[in-house]
Amino acid sequence: MIISPAWARLDNNVAERAVRPLAIGRKNWLFVGNKKGGEAAGVVLSLVQTCRAMGINPREYIEDVMRRLMSHNAQKLQELLPDFWLKAKECPAA
Predict the structure, then answer these.
(1) Does 2 reside within a domain?
(2) Which residues contact 10 (CB under 8 A, 6 or more apart)?
(3) Is residue 5, in this structure, part of any structural domain at all?
(4) Do you know which Pfam families this protein is assigned to (predicted)?
(5) Quick one: which of 28, 29, 58, 65 could link to 51 by a disulfide (CB 3.0–4.6 Å)?
(6) Whole-number Å distance between alpha carbons of 54 and 9
(7) How many percent of the chain have pLDDT more than 90?
(8) In which domain, by residue range, is 81 found?
(9) Is the Cβ–Cβ distance between 21 and 49 less than 8 Å?
(10) Cα separation, 66 vs 54, whole angstroms
(11) Residue in 15, 93, 84 with CA at minimum distance from that of residue 49
């Protein structure tokens, strides 16, 4: 007899759906150029998947961050991560 909490899922569909875009695009990414290009692509894909998991429109997030990036304080880049970005958007400073 297996006892598990009611909230525990018996499948990993959420994880499988999260990595599906990576599996689909695998052949496309053979041509990212070099190791640094692959690392950059990985960072962008990670941000996009994080946005999706948090219910953020990835395009809106990336466009906003790109506009603000050059003028943003380098010591406070953490504020541009999806979780901080969402909090700031939901509760703008008065």
Answers:
(1) no
(2) 4
(3) no
(4) DDE_Tnp_IS66, DDE_Tnp_IS66_C
(5) 58
(6) 19
(7) 41
(8) 13-90
(9) yes
(10) 19
(11) 15
| pTM of full prediction above 0.85 | no
What's the pLDDT band for 20 if we cut at 50, 70, 90?
A: confident
Predicted confidence at residue 42, as pLDDT, reads: 84
Q: Residue 22's pLDDT is what? A: 74
Phi (first) and psi of residue 39, to 5 degrees: -65, -40
Q: What is the pLDDT of residue 3?
A: 66
* Whether 75 contacts 60, CB under 8 Å: no
For residues 16 and 23, the answer to whether their CB atoms sit within 8 Å is no
Contact (CB, 8 A) for 38 and 26? no
Could you give the CA distance from residue 47 to residue 24 in angstroms, rounded to a whole number? 18
- Could you write out the DSSP letters of every residue in 31-81? GS-SHHHHHHHHHHHHHHHHHHHTT--HHHHHHHHHHHHTTS-GGGGGGGS
Task: Look at residue 19 and tell me if it is in a domain.
Answer: yes
